[in-house]
């Protein structure tokens, strides 16, 4: 098992390498010009001499592959360079803003787990009955509602009209409620529908009939036999939503003016700041590949057949 985990960790290296190469080249062959943004922010005259000097300072006058090699040597040491606009270390800025984003994402994931699992089970237990219809209607609204629109709606209702929750910032536990719910709501609804559909599929299996014939109560059948055997696709969905939650934080942090990685990265995108963009893409790729690794490990623990195949290989 340990060798399998180590092997999967090694697979992450070429993925991150290719991702960094693609984003590095894509930025430099596109029409995105960080020099122009730097000139605008610095109130410098856009003369050819000034442009040439800035390109030299940023290292943009070198061949692309030479630029990539110089960047890669520092990136493997977790040094992603300095921001073109602020001149500060991108790695240090990310570490400074990351706790806010992790806190927000963690709260969103707790909401996702806390609501989607019981709602999915309840919907499957009461199929085509009133609780099922209500839950399915909520899920239909949830998967059709963009997170940023829900964020504005929550601010309008709970901050402007009712004045129950603070609209901006992340000053207290109450400040977490609306942004975390905005991030989690769509994923929660998707997972609820997935849990329901998987449990209904498992209910068609023959071992469920045998469990009923043995006289087991309905709760035991639904939780121990139906839900447990429907877990593998659900675990996959939860793992992918981990990365998705961090991605949605990119948008929601801007709506609620939360000083996290999302707000910082959007400013980097707006300023065509190559080091920030490259660091953000690498971090997101790492999060998604790490989530896939966690999913594969959970698979082995949940399904003895997969664990046996791993041990035999």
Judging by the overall fold, what is the CATH architecture of the largest domain?
Answer: Orthogonal Bundle
Number of helices: 14
Order of helices and strands: HHHHHHHHHHHHHH
Question: What is the 3D form?
Answer: flat
From the alpha carbons, calculate the radius of gyration and give it in angstroms: 24 Å
Could you describe the largest sheet, including whether it forms a barrel? none
Q: How many separate domains?
A: 2
How much helix, percentage-wise, in residues?
A: over 70%
Ranges with pLDDT <50 over ≥5 residues?
A: none
Structural class of the secondary elements?
mainly alpha
What would CATH call the class of the largest domain?
Mainly Alpha
Determine the N-to-C terminus distance: 10 Å
List the defining traits of the structure above.
313 residues; mainly alpha; MetI-like fold; flat
Overview of this protein structure:
The chain is mainly alpha-helical. It folds into two domains: about 30-75, no CATH class; about 90-310, MetI-like fold (Orthogonal Bundle). The chain contains 14 helices and no strands. The chain has helices at about 1-30, 35-40, 50-60, 65-75, 90-125, 130-145, 145-160, 175-200, 205-215, 220-230, 230-255, 260-270, 275-300, 305-310. Helix 5 (about 90-125) packs across helix 11. The longest helix has about 35 residues, at about 90-125.
């Amino acid at each position: 098992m340990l060798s399998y985990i180590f092997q999967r960790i090694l697979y992450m290296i070429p993925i991150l390498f290719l991702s960094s190469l693609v984003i590095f080249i894509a930025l430099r062959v596109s029409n995105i010009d960080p020099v122009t943004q730097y000139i605008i922010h610095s109130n410098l005259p856009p003369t050819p001499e000034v442009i040439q000097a800035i390109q030299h300072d940023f290292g943009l006058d070198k061949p692309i592959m030479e630029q990539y090699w110089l960047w890669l040597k520092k990136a493997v040491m977790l040094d992603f360079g300095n921001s073109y606009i602020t001149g500060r270390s991108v790695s240090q800025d990310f570490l400074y803003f990351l706790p806010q984003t992790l806190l927000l994402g963690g709260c969103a994931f707790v909401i996702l787990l806390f609501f989607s699992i019981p709602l999915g089970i309840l919907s499957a237990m009461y199929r085509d009955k009133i609780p099922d219809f209500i839950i399915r209607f909520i899920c239909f609204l949830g998967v059709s509602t963009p997170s940023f629109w829900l964020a504005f709606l929550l601010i309008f209702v709970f901050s402007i009209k009712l004045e129950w929750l603070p609209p901006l910032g992340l000053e207290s536990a109450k400040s977490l409620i609306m942004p975390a719910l905005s991030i989690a709501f769509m994923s929660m609804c998707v997972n609820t529908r997935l849990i329901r559909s998987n449990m209904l599929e498992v209910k068609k299996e023959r071992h469920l009939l045998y469990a009923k014939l043995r006289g087991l109560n309905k709760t035991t059948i639904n939780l121990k036999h139906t839900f447990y055997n429907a877990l593998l696709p659900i675990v996959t969905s939860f793992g992918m939503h981990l990365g998705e939650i961090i991605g949605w934080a990119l948008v929601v942090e801007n709506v609620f003016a939360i000083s996290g990685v999302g707000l910082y990265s959007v400013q980097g995108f707006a300023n065509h700041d190559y080091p920030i963009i490259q660091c953000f893409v690498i971090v997101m790729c790492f999060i998604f590949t790490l989530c896939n690794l966690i999913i594969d490990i959970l698979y082995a623990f949940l399904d003895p057949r997969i664990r046996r195949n791993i041990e035999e290989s």
